[in-house]
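Suppose you are handed a protein chain with no further information: no name, no annotation, nothing but its sequence. What can you learn? This example shows the usual starting point.
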Amino acid sequence: MEQSEIFSQVIADLQDRDQLGWKNYRRELTADTYDDPLKEAYEEALDLAVYLKCAILQRQNDET
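A reasonable first move is to predict its three-dimensional structure. Written in C-alpha coordinates, the prediction is:
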Protein backbone atom coordinates (compact mmCIF):
# COMPACT_ATOMS: atom_id res chain seq x y z
CA MET A 1 0.00 0.00 0.00
CA GLU A 2 1.39 3.38 -1.00
CA GLN A 3 1.48 6.24 1.51
CA SER A 4 -0.58 9.30 0.76
CA GLU A 5 1.26 12.50 -0.04
CA ILE A 6 0.10 14.01 3.27
CA PHE A 7 1.53 11.11 5.29
CA SER A 8 4.78 11.32 3.33
CA GLN A 9 5.05 15.02 4.15
CA VAL A 10 4.30 14.41 7.86
CA ILE A 11 6.96 11.71 7.99
CA ALA A 12 9.46 14.07 6.34
CA ASP A 13 8.55 16.78 8.88
CA LEU A 14 9.09 14.31 11.75
CA GLN A 15 12.48 13.36 10.34
CA ASP A 16 13.41 17.05 10.05
CA ARG A 17 12.35 17.63 13.67
CA ASP A 18 14.44 14.67 14.78
CA GLN A 19 17.50 16.09 13.02
CA LEU A 20 16.86 19.53 14.51
CA GLY A 21 16.56 18.02 17.99
CA TRP A 22 19.86 16.21 17.52
CA LYS A 23 21.51 19.41 16.27
CA ASN A 24 20.22 21.45 19.23
CA TYR A 25 20.57 18.93 22.07
CA ARG A 26 23.15 16.39 20.79
CA ARG A 27 21.07 13.47 22.03
CA GLU A 28 18.16 11.40 20.82
CA LEU A 29 14.70 11.61 22.29
CA THR A 30 14.03 8.67 24.60
CA ALA A 31 11.56 7.83 27.35
CA ASP A 32 14.10 9.24 29.83
CA THR A 33 14.73 12.53 28.03
CA TYR A 34 12.36 14.63 30.16
CA ASP A 35 11.66 14.66 33.86
CA ASP A 36 7.97 15.24 33.17
CA PRO A 37 6.90 14.50 29.58
CA LEU A 38 3.24 15.27 30.34
CA LYS A 39 4.16 18.76 31.49
CA GLU A 40 6.31 19.22 28.37
CA ALA A 41 3.44 18.06 26.15
CA TYR A 42 0.97 20.33 27.97
CA GLU A 43 3.26 23.32 27.44
CA GLU A 44 3.58 22.42 23.75
CA ALA A 45 -0.23 22.22 23.54
CA LEU A 46 -0.49 25.70 25.06
CA ASP A 47 1.92 27.00 22.41
CA LEU A 48 -0.19 25.29 19.75
CA ALA A 49 -3.34 26.99 21.09
CA VAL A 50 -1.65 30.38 20.75
CA TYR A 51 -0.53 29.66 17.17
CA LEU A 52 -4.02 28.45 16.24
CA LYS A 53 -5.67 31.56 17.71
CA CYS A 54 -3.19 33.74 15.83
CA ALA A 55 -4.03 31.98 12.55
CA ILE A 56 -7.77 32.35 13.22
CA LEU A 57 -7.38 36.09 13.87
CA GLN A 58 -5.24 36.49 10.73
CA ARG A 59 -7.92 34.74 8.67
CA GLN A 60 -10.60 36.98 10.16
CA ASN A 61 -8.53 40.07 9.33
CA ASP A 62 -7.99 38.82 5.76
CA GLU A 63 -11.75 38.33 5.31
CA THR A 64 -12.54 41.93 6.28
